[in-house]
Specification:
Shape: elongated
Helix content: 25-40%
Number of helices: 11
Radius of gyration: 19 Å
Structural class: alpha/beta
Number of domains: 2
CATH superfamily of the largest domain: TPP-binding domain
Number of strands: 8
Strand content: 5-15%
Largest sheet: 6 strands, parallel
Order of helices and strands: HEHHHHHEHEEHEHEHEEH
CATH topology of the largest domain: Rossmann fold
CATH class of the largest domain: Alpha Beta
Bound molecules: 2'-O-acetyl adenosine-5-diphosphoribose
Strand order of the largest sheet: 3-2-1-6-7-8
């Protein structure tokens, strides 16, 4: 029932925002942020590794963790949920995909220009100047996949350490991306929020801004979240099943 309602709203929409979190990539085998870390990383807490203080205290540990995550994402493939987002993108007049994910699975599924509010695993930058380093030697894939401490490379121009190109806790979000996301949320008629716990701010404001501006907010998540009260429609289920079903119902004959 909700699937058909969501499909009806989406097929009529002129301006859409798709806002995604770690649950979007869960079925590609990329663990969500709040899943307990496993294997070698089991004794660490992700929220404590993802900080400037952790990198400062132990750069080899933090760089090794990000290289391991990067290796996992390289092996992962976009799932039917990512493909469904790209299918929506191809069919609605205007769309902005806003992701909190640092993987590149939306791009690889065909989304044109997702906004990465929390940066990217694939854009490391100089920790000294903040600039993107031109080049640095990539670690061997096997070494990264194994996990463990890996010394970060040095910036080719100034010799400072290279750091992951992600937003850590306590850091500000990329200004241009955040502004574009807020503007899109404030002027859309439908916002889909997919696979996010909706607790990390300011990103978690995005669906709330859309709802406040009168948009229909559709949430896709197998679990309840604080966004349940914000959403007009709550579709309980995994992104890789629910999103393709919504696309199929919105545009019969189209498979995502
Ligand atoms: P979380 O790990 O907080 O939440 C993942 C959400 O995905 C939960 O609500 C799950 O119920 C849901 N979920 C799990 N499997 C799913 C599936 N197959 N389909 C749909 N949903 C599923 O991840 P985020 O909300 O993305 O920030 O976390 C937000 C930010 O907090 C992250 O970007 C990261 C983190 O700490 C930084 O690193 C700055």
């Amino acid at each position: 029932m909700e699937t058909r309602q969501a499909a009806g709203v989406l097929s009529e929409a002129r301006r859409v925002v798709v806002f995604t979190g770690a649950g979007m990539s869960a079925e590609s085998g990329v663990p969500t942020f709040r899943d307990a870390l496993t294997g070698l990383w089991a004794r660490f807490d992700a929220e404590r590794l993802a900080t400037p203080e952790a990198f400062h205290a132990d750069p080899d540990l933090v760089w090794g963790w990000y290289e391991w995550r990067r290796a996992r994402v390289r092996r992962a493939e976009p799932n039917p949920g990512h493909l469904a987002v790209a299918a929506i993108e191809a069919r609605v007049p205007a769309i902005t995909v806003v992701t909190q994910n640092v993987d590149d699975l939306h791009e690889r599924a065909g989304s044109q220009a997702p906004i990465h509010l929390h940066g990217s695993l694939f854009a490391p930058r100089c920790a000294g100047t903040g600039a993107h380093p031109a080049t640095f030697p990539d670690v061997e894939a096997a070494m990264a996949a194994e996990g463990g401490r890996i010394p970060p490379p040095r910036c080719a121009s100034c010799g400072a350490l290279v750091r992951p190109g992600v937003v850590w806790f306590g850091e500000t979000l990329p200004e241009a991306g955040l502004t574009a996301a807020v503007e899109a949320a404030a002027s859309c008629d439908v916002l889909l929020t997919v696979g996010t716990s909706g607790v990390v701010h300011p990103a978690a404001e995005i669906p709330r801004i859309a709802a406040g501006a009168g948009a229909t907010v559709i949430q896709i998540n197998p679990e309840p979240t604080p966004l349940d009260r914000v959403a007009t429609l709550n579709l309980r289920g995994p992104a890789a099943k629910v999103l393709p079903a919504v696309v199929a119902a919105a545009w019969p004959g189209v498979s995502a």
